[in-house]
Amino acid sequence: GQNIDQPTEMTATEGAIVQINCTYQTSGFNGLFWYQQHAGEAPTFLSYNVLDGLEEKGRFSSFLSRSKGYSYLLLKELQMKDSASYLCAVRPYSGAGSYQLTFGKGTKLSVIP
Amino acid sequence: NAGVTQTPKFQVLKTGQSMTLQCAQDMNHEYMSWYRQDPGMGLRLIHYSVGAGITDQGEVPNGYNVSRSTTEDFPLRLLSAAPSQTSVYFCASSYSRAANSYEQYFGPGTRLTVT
Questions:
Q1: pLDDT in tens, B16-71
Q2: For residue B29, which phi and psi values (nearest 5 degrees)?
Q3: How many alpha carbons fall within 13 Å on the CB side of residue A70?
Q4: What is the DSSP pairing of strand B101-106 with strand A60-65?
Q5: Nearest Cα to B23, choosing from B35, B5, B8, B41?
């Protein structure tokens, strides 16, 4: 089976840094995605990690440790518009099933002034 | 490019009615999928397709049918709507050989209520 855990909710202050954790136990691993989803909207792609280490993209960074089954999304210089749900998703399969993603339940981040 | 489009945006059905949710993409993606999103449950895969003429079941397929006659279109059919199918439905597409990318692009969603 597939199991992906994220905190349900987090609150952080505008201008601060927040780290959203994701742990996974899946039947296989071929990459991990982070998506952002504003209320009432579709998820949008943030990052994709396949190898261990930190990937930085502007104010957002994503880290992966395959041996620990662990990833985090780091958001710096928080802005009010960062209030959204953040979804962690794993590609468990390779080959013909490699397009499938298994999603965690998402972390709702509230940014306060 | 329009990306992934879905119609309708909102729909109310009575129990037992059938309907088709439409999904189309213009990015020449091989892979298309349907998810439902319920509060506290995250995105759950209903059905997916790895190319025209090929479909398979995901995590929660019961009560839904799909077909993929063209690369562009992937409709989802509700056979006999039940209140448990009240949800937000997202269509997504992924993978272009040219881009060698597995990023999934989501449509805007269909909000379905079954009474």
A1: 999 999 999 998 888 999 999 998 888 999 999 988 999 999 989 999 999 999 99
A2: -80, 140
A3: 7
A4: unpaired
A5: B5
Q: Are A75 and A110 in contact (CB under 8 A)?
A: no
Greatest Cα pair distance in chain A: 47
Residue corresponding to tokens 């729909």: B11
Name which of A82, A100, A81 is nearest A90 in CA terms.
A100
CB-count exposure of residue B81 (10 Å: 0-12, 13-18, 19+):
buried
SS (H, E, C) B11-50: EEECCCCCEEEEEEECCCCCEEEEEEEECCCEEEEEEEEE
Contacts of A98 in chain B (CB under 8 A): 102
Partner B contacted by A39 (CB < 8 A): no
Tell me which residue in A31, A44, A96 faces B50 most closely, judged by beta carbons: A96
* pLDDT per position as a tens digit, A21-45: 999 998 888 889 999 999 999 999 9
Hunting for tokens 């479909």 — which residue is that? B55
At A63, give phi and psi (nearest 5°). -120, 145
Distance CA A24, CA A5 (A): 6
Which residues in chain A have their CB less than 8 angstroms from residue B35's CB?
Answer: 103
The residues, any chain, with a CB within 8 Å of residue A80's CB and separated by 6 or more, are A14, A111, A113
